[in-house]
Amino acid sequence: MKQFLLPLSALLVVAGLNGSALAQQSAADYFENGIAKSKSGDFPGALQAFSMAITINPENSASYYNRGLAKANLKDHRGAILDYDRAIELNPKDALAYLSRGVSKSKQEDHRAALMDFSRAIELNPDDPQAYFNRGASRSRLDQYRGALQDFSKTIELEPTNANALYARGLTKQKLEDYASSLADFSKVIDMNPKRAQAFAGRAVSKIELGDFSGAVADLNKAIELNAQDADSYYYRGFAKSKLDDYKSAYADYDRAIALNGADFRAYYGRGFTRSKLGDQKGSIQDFNSAIELNNENMESGKVLYSGRLNRAALDNLRNAVQERNKINDLTAERSEAYFSRAVSKNKQGDAKGAIVDLNKTIELNPTYAEAHFTRGIIKSAQGDQKGAIMDLSSAVKLNPRYGEAYYVRGIIKHSLGDENGGCLDLSKAGEVGYTAAYKVISEYCN
User: Could you confirm whether the keyword Acyltransferase appears in this record (predicted)?
Assistant: First the structure.
């Protein structure tokens, strides 16, 4: 069965802003603008507004908290956690900050740390059903099913119409082999939402375990009617039909399950079994071979996880999409601007070596020329010198802490070298200072 998803808290906190009268008013304006943009779904705009509020008044916890929410909605959970950390440092009694930090930690698969945050949120606000639900989800991911059952039950006690908690409790009861009791939870979910395919599928699994194969087929018929792309539903219906000796129909279900999820060893085994029953011994042996040989890691999660670093082709594509920063400037006496612009032109003509020579001269004449460090880093990366590129990009962000493109390129290079955490934190910083292209990369490679 697929795991239930952890919901992302979308709460916004409006709090008073401290500071001088003039700064307070200006920071408050940015803060209210951030709230408005968050409510309208403009999370990049909200992030920039909260960043301005923080620049003016860096001691307001609500600004960090809401910027964290904006980052989380952009799937930048590493960056969100840093903001929640600061919000909690400034206001250790903020239950919502612990709750939201726990959600972002869950999204990063750090379920033990998330569980601690949810527990602290419950200590601070013991009547919040969402905190119990999220803690139950974390406990479930850690195979702590009895604790999860208690948390889901508490959620339902506080919020009897919480269909997600009823569904999650039904799944948890299955893990504890309490199939009879789980039926009632799934049935309540169906009563609340007759179009929730997962609830029919979940109830069917319990019926199978209880030997009610005809009832399971009826539920799975409905689940498939509502969601015809769920491989598990076809698998379980094939299994139930096999138990009812309906091998021809079961074969068709296993075949469909394999078409939707070719990595499910159970479906190959089931199809092989039905082929044998239908007289196709050669085909059954092929399916049994597949059932034995398949690597089924992470099959149950139903989630395709990105694993590994950015490859060279992806790095090149992402890096080359960055616009150059060659703008006309007044020519100073040492003429560093002329060397810089000539370097850009040489690089465009394919003379990377000559470009590096000119950039070296630019930096020699003007060591604080951030664009020269950035451009030299870009060229070094294209030439395969990723460590040298990181050194140049680090110089660029040291000289200009709001150089979003430099954080971005350094981030994708770090990721390509295997430093996923460092790379994703750089991408988060790039987005924070306004380079919003970073969020697409974060969404694809940092979750």
Answer: no
List, in order, residues 6 or more apart from 234 with CB less than 8 Å away: 224, 253, 254, 256, 257, 260, 267
Encoded tokens for 263 = 């990595």
In terms of DSSP H, where are the helices of 125-264?
129-141, 145-158, 163-175, 179-192, 197-209, 213-226, 231-243, 247-260
- Give 7-60 as a DSSP string: PPP---------S-HHHHHHHHHHHHHHHHHHHTT-HHHHHHHHHHHHHH-TT-
CB contact at 8 A, 57 and 64: no
Domains of the chain: 21-142 (1.25.40.10), 188-293 (1.25.40.10), 312-445 (1.25.40.10)
Six token digits for residue 357: 């020579």
Q: 355: Cβ–Cβ under 8 A, 6 or more apart, which residues?
A: 343, 344, 346, 347, 375, 379
d(CA 8, CA 326): 41
Rounded mean pLDDT for each run of 10 residues along the chain, 447 residues in total:
41 48 70 95 94 94 96 95 97 97 95 97 97 97 96 97 96 97 97 96 97 97 97 96 95 96 92 92 91 63 44 82 60 74 88 93 92 93 92 96 94 92 94 91 87
Q: What is the pTM of this model?
A: 0.78
Give the contacts of 349 (CB within 8 A, at least 6 positions apart). none
Residue that has been written with the tokens 């998803």 in this structure: 5
